[in-house]
Amino acid sequence: MRSWTFLNGALSGSDVTSDVVGKYIESLRVEEYSNASINRRTQLLGQAFKIAMRNKQISSAPFIPGLSEVGNERQGFFETADFEAVIAQLPEYLRDFARFGFLTGWRKGSIESLRWADVGEDVIYLRAENSKTRKVETMPLEGELAAIIERRRSAQMVKDGNCTNRLAEFVFHREGQPIGDFRKAWATARKKANVDHKLFHDLRRTASRNMIVAGVPQAVAMKITGHRTDSMFRRYAIVDEAQKREALAKTQQHLAASAGRKVVMIGK
User: Fold this and answer.
1) Gap between the Cα atoms of 44 and 217, Å rounded
2) Helical H runs in 130-229?
3) Phi first, then psi: what are they for 165, rounded to 5°?
4) Cα atoms found within 13 Å of the Cα of residue 252, Cβ hemisphere only
5) Domains of the chain by range and CATH?
6) Residue 178 near residue 112, CB atoms below 8 Å
7) Is the full-model pTM beyond 0.85?
8) Number of helices followed by number of strands (H, E) in the chain
9) What is the pLDDT of residues 147-192, one digit of tens each?
10) SS3 label, residue 124
């Protein structure tokens, strides 16, 4: 029977019971995975069991529940002060990584993938295989982004196991290695900063909202963040309560001004 890596151990298909699946789901919840992300993982598990049953490798499959994704869209975003508070608590190797995400709205995986070979004189190229659009994307090095890349150049030299110097391949790295899973470091920094539950992915929503509030045309903002569709971008460009309040006040002022205008009748 084929063994699978499951719940930090190797289990055969017959060992993966409904109870084990339930514990797996709970472990993902503890690690702050969304219902949608959990469903994608368990969906792959279910497909593997279907294939095994079709090939007569097993005679039965465990029950794999599908979690509700209704209202699963997160509404989280960072105010600048909260973001800076978290940044101050992050390990040094993650600070520029997070700032890049805050400014561009790029996905964690896209930022992780950046190599120095992708950095031009004044632009960054995101390879098609690392882009959600599956097209080459570019990011001009403007303002703080240029400063981030300059800091990363200063951190490019690292020591290997033989204490010899070498240049890191990746723009953002940890002692020369690609940035891996940092959920624990992120959660620790967030708690120390006394910031409500926020995920790194919330930076994507934050960047989308900030660009729209700043008056950036949606088409241009989508090119920066890499959103493929208007509907997905609109989900991320969240309007907060203060913006709604301001919009209502402006609308009511406009209506009041309109009501006070004199109507001049044009004679026949």
Assistant:
1) 38
2) 144-154, 183-192, 202-213, 218-225
3) -80, 145
4) 6
5) 3-54 (no CATH), 80-236 (1.10.443.10)
6) yes
7) no
8) 11, 8
9) 999 999 999 998 877 778 899 999 999 999 999 999 999 999 999 9
10) strand
